[in-house]
Amino acid sequence: MCGIVGWTDFTRDLSHEHTTLDRMTGTMALRGPDAAGSWLGPHTVLGHRRLSVIDLEGGTQPAVEVTEPHQEPVVLVYSGEVYNFRELRATLKSCGHRFTTRSDTEVVLRSYLEWGAACVDHFNGMFAFAVWDARREELLLARDRIGVKPLYYFAYSGGILFASEPKGIMANPLFHPVVDEESLPVLFNARLALPGETPLRGLREVRPGHVLRFSRSGGHEYSYWRLVSREHHDDLDTTVSTVRELFEDIIDHQLVADVPRSAMMSGGLDSTIMAALANRRLKAAGEGPLHTFAVEFAGDEEDFKPTELRPERDAPYARLAARHLGTVHHNIMLQTADVLAAVPSARRARDLPSLGQFDSSMYLLFQAIRDQSTVALSGEAADEVFGGYPWYHDERLVWRDRFPWIGDAPRLADAFAPDLHRRVRPAEAENDRYLTLKGEVSRLPGEEGLNARMREVMYYNLKGPLAYLLDRKDRMSMAVGLEVRVPYCDHRLVEYVWNVPWDMKNADGRWKSLLRLAFADILPQETLDRPKSGYPGTHDPAYNAEVMRSIDKILSDPLSPLHGVFDSQRVEALTQSGSKTMTWLNSSHLVLPILEVDAWMRAYGVSLA
Question: At what residues does the UniProt record annotate the site feature described as Important for beta-aspartyl-AMP intermediate formation (predicted)?
Fold first, then answer.
């Protein structure tokens, strides 16, 4: 895992831009604490920071291949893991390629040399990479199918900047951070962002499953992968066995590393399945038992209040699962003071407005995991792929023609100042994004009723909330030099389950039936029966009071960058409404973005236009 940056400009000579490139590359130091490298050419410069995971001695980047007949270089900077790199190396050897390292970096470079931009079709993994091909005078940017690894860019006349994180682009003086008014709904609810969209003017992400090619004629981004709806012909037994076979193979591939591995395990269905398989594989290889981790908050026994999305505490279930599986388990106990103290570090890792305690607690959890291992498995995406969230099972929300995961919940944008609210029209902005995604759904001819609607519902979650969760996972883990792998994001599994009808996904009448049926023999009954519970947060009244005090100060501060954005009476009405929703932990959780956006705008000098 690594951090990459780069700059292509056909209107100037970049070969002397050492200082700017070093500044951009330096922002990736936490993502790659083990090594740094750079490459400078007349119209492109590339920077890389490395976290060594595979072939610790090889795999140096930027990786360069000088090609005939005119000795033009092809240069790669790459972040992520291609899990099928061993199979691809064998294929490439049969095509005449010779290898000097054991790294997947060299496999990616030689795959490009063999197949060009179509190399992405051959990769199974999480990746973001850039190739400068001097033969074509073309920069190629590519991102994995699900969007596990980030890749941002800023295009301008004659040039383009890119980086694994926005801070890499912000380190170049050509970029100025500005938020336009029409982007405010996304700024305060990042789950509304369409693929590729950010709240900053001109800053984009390469969309998941896309390639961007940039040359003298400009840039062109196109899709190389998307979900396609097809008839599912397997019966239930075959479907269940296929899910198991696929996931076992995925775990096998994602355990490949030359460094210690571990897993996050909350005691829920998804993470316990993942940990059970990983533990078996490591023990069989003589490398076990697996170390597993869960987060716990001091005072939870007294302060915890169940919500629909978080009905129970994780810690007791995690301990039970660990005893059943035989893992070495670590419950990371967090104090409120530590969670608050870690917020600035988590904000810096995020680059965009953070989730406050949800980011900082994950940051601290990953710090603890990093003390034991360099690679950790995580259960992200199982709920989106298999149908685990409660809003998948609430008919009122399913059939409402809007995002089911937000439903009738209060929107923070409803508290905008009246004039701003009239100009921005946040309800229309939300509906526009909903209709845009609805128009993208791959339909199955003849499919109707609940099966057809659930295909839409699952697509919304894959494109909005999942993207945000993966972004958070990447930022908080890479900020401490930890590589987090997400087996449920393997595109083969996503493709297969996408086409399983909803009535089969819900075969036993409970959430995530396919997973429960596929792995019932290896899990404790308590895990099999446990309802979905989201990533936890602290319920400490002192934390909530501190958040509300900070927001009150912001709303009354004429120097705040958010001065005039909110109507304080409307904000108070939101917090006092007592409205219960599936997603918000409490009222301070609902209004927390005010605090985080204010802090972000101040720290990065972001202006509002």
Answer: 380
What is the C-alpha radius of gyration for the chain, rounded to an integer number of angstroms?
24
- Residue ranges of the annotated binding site for ATP are 295, 378-379
- Entry pTM: 0.95
Return all residues near 578 (Cβ < 8 A) that are at least 6 apart: none
Q: How far apart are CA 588 and CA 585, in angstroms?
A: 8
* Residues 378-393 pLDDT 10s: 999 999 999 998 889 8
DSSP label at 512? Answer: T
> In terms of Cα–Cα distance, which of 50, 80, 596, 176 is closest to 349?
596
Cα gap 331→273, rounded to integer Å: 18
| Amino acid letter for position 508 | D
User: Can you tell me which residue has the tokens 């997947």?
Assistant: 104
Binding positions for L-glutamine are 104
The superfamily in CATH containing domain 3-223 is Aminohydrolase, N-terminal nucleophile (Ntn) domain (3.60.20.10)
- Give backbone dihedrals phi and psi of 186, rounded to 5 degrees, phi first: -75, -35
**C-alpha separations of 559 from 343, 562, 579, 603 in Å:** 22, 8, 31, 14
Q: What is the pLDDT of residues 415-446, one digit of tens each?
A: 999 999 999 999 999 999 999 999 999 999 99
The backbone region for 462, taken as left when phi is positive above 0, alpha when psi lies in -120 to 50, beta otherwise, is: alpha
> What residues are annotated to the active site?
2
Give the fold, CATH level 3, of 236-529: Rossmann fold (3.40.50)
Q: How many CB atoms lie within 10 A of CB 180?
A: 14
Distance (Å, rounded) from C-alpha 519 to C-alpha 123? 27
* 3 state SS for 3-63: EEEEEEECCCCCCCCHHHHHHHHHCCCCCCECEEEEEECCCEEEEEEECCCCCCCCCCCCE
Asked whether the beta carbons of 362 and 535 are under 8 A apart, the reply is yes
- Is there a common fold for 3-223 and 236-529? no
Give the residue numbers of the binding site: 104, 295, 378-379
292-314 pLDDT, tens digit each = 999 999 888 777 877 777 878 88
d(C-alpha 312, C-alpha 300), whole Å:
11
- Measured between alpha carbons, how far is 547 from 152 in angstroms, rounded to an integer? 31
DSSP class per residue in 211-278: EEEEETTEEEEEES-----------HHHHHHHHHHHHHHHHHHHT--SS-EEEE--SSHHHHHHHHHH
